[in-house]
Amino acid sequence: MLRLDRTIAAAIVDHARRDHPDEACGVVAGPAGSDRPLRHVPMLNAALSPTFYEFDSTELLALYKEMDARDEEPVVIYHSHTATEAYPSRTDIALAQEPNSHYVLVSTAGGAHEGEGLLPLRSYRIVDGEVSEEEVRLVDGSVTEDTE
C-alpha cells in the first residue's frame, strides 16, 4: 500500500493537468529505506510528448545527487497518461528501474485535464517486468515540496 499525503497527490494531479497534452513526470523523494514519500519534485518531460515521458538527464542526475546528499531515495516515480487509462504501458514496464519505488499514474484522458479536484491516482509496483497494483491511501501530514 502507498500512503501519500493529500497535498502531494493534489500537486501530482495539478502537474499532470498543467503539462497536458504532454505527459507530466516527477518524483516524490523520502528518507532512504523509509517508504515515506515526503518531498515532491516535479520534473521536465524532456520528450515533450503526449505518449511518452523521459526525464531530462541533467535534471535527473542533479536530483539523484541531491537525494544522495540528503540520504533520500525515489519513493514514488509518477507520470501521466494523456489518452489512456492510468495503467503502465509496455514501455513503462520495460523502463522501470527502481524496484523499491511506487509507480504512480494519473490519467488526464477524456477531458479530465479540464476539470477540478483530485483525479484518481493508481499505484503499481513493477519488479522484473511484473506489474502489481496496490492500494493508495491519501493521508494528511506535513510535506516539503520543491517548486519548478
Describe this structure in words.
- The chain has helices spanning 6-19, 57-69, 90-95, and strands spanning 2-5, 25-31, 39-43, 72-81, 102-107, 121-127, 130-134, 136-139, 144-145.
- The protein has a single domain (2-145), classed as Cytidine Deaminase, domain 2, CATH 3.40.140.10.
- The protein has three helices and nine strands.
- The protein is globular, with a radius of gyration of 14 Å.
- It has a seven-stranded mixed β-sheet with strand order 7-6-5-4-2-3-9. The protein has a two-stranded parallel ribbon with strand order 1-8.
- The chain is of the alpha/beta class.
- Total helices: the number is 3
- Gyration radius, rounded: 14 Å
Low-confidence stretches: 143-148
Query: What is the residue-averaged pLDDT?
Result: 92
Largest β-sheet summary: 7 strands, mixed
Under the CATH scheme, the architecture is 3-Layer(aba) Sandwich
Q: Care to count the β-strands? A: 9
> Helicity, in percent?
10-25%
Total count of domains: 1
